[in-house]
Amino acid sequence: MNAEILKANELKKVAPVFGQLSFDNHEQVVFCNDKDTGLKAIIGIHNTNLGPALGGTRMWNYESEYEALNDVLRLSRGMSFKSAITGLNLGGGKAVIIGDAKTQKTPALMRRFGEFVHSLSGKYITAEDVGMETEDMDIVSEVTPFVAGISEEKGGAGNPSPITAYGVFMGMKAAAKYKFGTDNLEGKKVLVQGIGHVGETLVKYVSEEGAEVIIADINQERLIEVSEKYGAKIFEGDHLYDLDVDIYAPCALGATLNDQTIPQLKAKVVAGAANNQLADELIHGELLKQKGIVYAPDFLINAGGIINVYAEIVKYDRAEIIKKTENIYNTTLEILTKAELEQMTTHQAALKIAKNRILAAKK
Ligand code: NAD
Q1: Choices 2.60.40.10, 1.10.10.10, 3.40.50.720, 3.40.50.300: CATH for 162-361
Q2: Where is the Glutamate/phenylalanine/leucine/valine/L-tryptophan dehydrogenase C-terminal domain (predicted)?
């Protein structure tokens, strides 16, 4: 191990939270533990200048607590910028529950988690993320009003994923317009990685427009189901990232744009739903730029869900939600143009606008 890594590891021991690589002046980090239900969760509140911190809960079988903390810090930070650039009066927050959603999620655990959310008195509002279903939010709503994405029967707006997918589709079309001169995806080869709640609906939109869709997932049953439904091709082989496609849509987990994958990419556009697609936002944003790959910033184009969830809290107006989500097309084009003019990466261009709005709210 070289000296730098050793030093970083030593630092983590003395400063495991505030010294964390992904710590970015987060306002509050809450560790939640409940022996009876086995709940181990972390709630990250990044910034509340613009309003309460809203962001989903992810349940994942993290390899270590460090990995879970890193994820919640990165995800909650991303939420601050997502809401800011979308023009919503919301701060950024997120929660992670450590465990396997398929085998360890119980109603009692979700209820206990809801009590922890409630203890923050509305500073953090939760919703769905990976590993969560609408029914889980319904359970949380039994113990706290600080939850969105609850079912229509319980007075909510349901799972926000279809709207997220629609926004990603808008962002993808804008990026295609910028790169290929047309936003019509007919005949384009599109790789969708992760065909869960968002990915599947994205496959639907893209296929309906006549694109050739290739799907990849670790869940074989889903692959067969989605392939049969939309006529998408299932990816087979070991070399996903150098697949000869026009557009790559990451819709699984984050950090798939990294030192190993970017040199392999043949896609000319990256536009997907996953949060934190760039493993390192500076280095990997720059690498994509150097390769001439148009990257539609994740936190900009996957904002459909937060638009939907926000409306659930303030005033639910379906037409207004669709209008705002469709506007992702215009904002994406603006950001891509701004990045080129100002000679920065598309991620930096989007971040600059978001950060300015957060700062102005503080003043
Ligand atoms: P989901 O859990 O429904 O789907 C994720 C899918 O990815 C699953 O089918 C899973 O099997 C697959 N997957 C996991 N690891 C994989 C791997 N290594 N390779 C290929 N496939 C893999 O989650 P979702 O709600 O569809 O969210 C997808 C992504 O979009 C997440 O990163 C999430 O944070 C982000 N996002 C979701 C929303 C929303 O409204 N649901 C909003 C904004 C961002």
Answers
A1: 3.40.50.720
A2: 158-363
